[in-house]
Amino acid sequence: MTTVDSTSDARTVNNVMRHAYRVLSDEEKALMGKLKDMGLEFHEFIASLGNSRELAVAKTKIEEATMWAVKHLTA
Fold first, then answer.
1. What is the distance between the alpha carbons of residues 21 and 35, in angstroms, rounded to a whole number?
2. Is residue 65 part of a domain?
3. Of 5, 24, 46, 63, which is least packed with CB atoms within 10 Å of its CB?
4. Is a pLDDT exceeding 70 seen at residue 13?
């Protein structure tokens, strides 16, 4: 499977739903990377606490919050 970095201008290559993207500025690319890094860090911390339904929901909500924040940035 070919992967494309999420901050790359070529990020439409493996995206089925969104067919057109605007080119992001270097600042926007850096912000998107930071959002995703922070989301991942929080997600990994929550995962380190163990396994439960509550933690599974928390991880899903972190993923969702990160997705919406990135969507705002890239809209």
1. 19
2. yes
3. 5
4. no
